[in-house]
Amino acid sequence: MKPNLTIGPILFHWPAEKKLEFYARIAEEAPVDTVYLGEVVCSKRSPFFEQYYEDVAERLTRAGKKVVFSSLAEIMLKRERNMMAGFCEIEDHEIEINDASALWHLDGHKFRVGPLMNAYNEETLRYLAGKGATHFAMPTELPGSSVAIMASAARDVGAGSEVQVFGRAQLALSARCYHARAHGRIKDNCQFVCELDPDGMPLRTLDGNDFLAINGIQTLSHKYINLMAELPQLREMGITHFRLVPQDVDMVAVAKIWRAALDGVISPEEGQKRLDALNLPAPFANGFWHGQAGVKKVAVERALASL
Amino acid sequence: MRPPELVCPAGTPAAMRTAVEAGADAVYCGFQNATNARNFPGLNFTPGELERAIRHAHENGTKVLLAINTFPPAGKVDLWRDAVDLGARLGVDAYIVADIGVADYIARNHPDIRLHLSVQAAASSPEAIKWYCREFGVKRVVLPRILTVSEIKAIAREIPCEIETFIFGNHGLMVEGRCSLTNYITGQSTNYDGVCSPAADVEYRRDEEGNLSTRLGDFTIDCFSCNETAGYPTICKGRYLTPARNEGYYAFEEPISLNLSSLLPDLMAAGVNALKIEGRQRSRAYVKNVVSSFRKAVDAIMAGEEPPLADLIALTEGQKQTEGAFKSKTWR
Amino acid sequence: MEPVTPYPPTDDNARARTFLPAPPLPLFLLQPVLRRIVTRIASQNPDMFNRLGPHKSANFIIDVTSLPFVLHLRPDPEDLLFRAVARSRKPEADAEIRGGFLDLLGLVDGDADGDALFFSRDLTITGNTEAVVCLRNALDDVDGSIAQSVADMFGPPGRAMLSALRRASARKKS
Question: Which of A30, C36, C73, C156 has the smallest number of CB atoms closer than 10 Å to its CB?
Fold first, then answer.
């Protein structure tokens, strides 16, 4: 099967115009197969783009992309519960869920399991497949040795398997908004300060080292995950989908490099060279994949031997 | 009003005996491996220790809840199944679980043993809780520490199972079961290795002036001048720099502990069935002080008296306490 | 009555010093006592060593800030060591635990919580943190009080001294 290149949901609170521009470029120029749409992080942000989804989805579909809607990851308030109930009624597109509350609504319907759903093992995968799951995006921290087993279990139940190969790692969620906190505010009175940081708000250690990036209630890694060097391994395992998580960089350029590497037009080494040449704002890391600290960049010769 | 169950931590057999003596209705504990979320060195129970501890607890009318509340990574499921089967053989009163696969295994193989949904499952809405109840027959949910008392009350009306809430101890900031911060820095996962800031990766450096810097892996996560109180060496309790701030600040939360002693009557009135004290990693002295003071408070409330408010500040992180999210949404 | 001390007073536990032998105490007199203590505790609680795991053979320095010497502990049942060492000759160790006399006494008396002492900065640890955590957990799993067992070894005078120290500790807390 032809490997499927995907664009994950935009995690940041970009202004509507910026998102529209982004999806216009993705539709016209990015050689990707699937685009995930929707606000995953903060229910307060949702209204800002709600009115555009239909047009964006239509435009992407016209450009030959498959559109999947991604759900919120934290469901607690009445507003969020209602949003999830409504989300689970989407009929025109596939949906990817990121919180267990969706399972209550989805009884019997098909759905995709998002990376924030904690499907860590083959038993959970089989159980959810029995409930209608057709596709599994792996938790970011799951090591390659476990992903291999998950990919095979997914294949056995006829489901897809997806791994994030590019972009900041989604490390934590909280009920508290850390963007608001940094600006001396609280979540209810945040005034959407998260909009100031289109690639996340940098946190450095007291001795000045780059460390994490804040995105509202979410904490991301400073470094970008990059599994280009591991591509042959991923293919070998039978991973069906390769996810690029949008950052505030030239994602079309990133997608083109990945497409070429996935199609075998260029080698992973060449792909890596081209990614390096983009001069992205943060260094790459691949530690999680190798069962090591996520922040680490593991040399791949050693990586292959360790699996 | 039915008296709520006081659920107390036990990191060692001695701590469990202490909790039982101090008036715990139930104690929770785990094995010495990755199947529980306090997989710390030198802590927890061997099968033999747990067997004797359960006998002692049961003789004193105390229930024993076994925490198997981590997520087995693919390929390692057997360790979790073995823990479940061993727990059944030893006669635990309930399992505390987070993983769907583990819950399913218990529901199919040990349907007579109660199933509690761990806080690690992060079920924070009635729909999520109802799903776990319907699928696996969950009897009780441990709610995340992110809800206000009135939100807990609203949930209680909608779900078919008991509610357990934390009343004292570590004030968890991140949604539990959804935090990979430790793994990002140390290569040990909170979700599948059961550790948060593993001691082996923590280093304290003391300089000439008595300042103490805390390092996790290769990163400095805080620095205390000599007159400042300290907290756990976790990333979420550390200080960092960001452009919006002039100096290092607690980006997530300052060192502080949860203490809901003054909200106990409200929680009980809201329909909370069990009150949980955090701290399996703490000492017998902590267990004795905290459990006995909450025992007195609960008994007083049940007798219609004003609950005595014990001074537990000395046991709190950073020597500070909070009612966190429970009292007001401004915490968020 | 405060004994005259040849070493500078530290910030903590002034009362505790009242109960300590006035230095200079020849350390060689102390060694057999320490050896007896650790051998007794070890023989009464053989299971505690399991909690130490790989850190059985670790060398710990226990620095009681009000004492003129430090204690050197290696909790290996095969090769037990507990001795006093002059500060000037402090050996290389895997980890160091530093605190006031009454606070450290509280820990081995089952009366103090190590985390709480750490939060209040009354206890400092450096070196191999995991080894310290294991040692703490091992000691905490010993039923009753290690301090009491030690006091009992010295009969009525031992018990009287421990009672006095507990009173001093209670006064300090209040």
Answer: C156
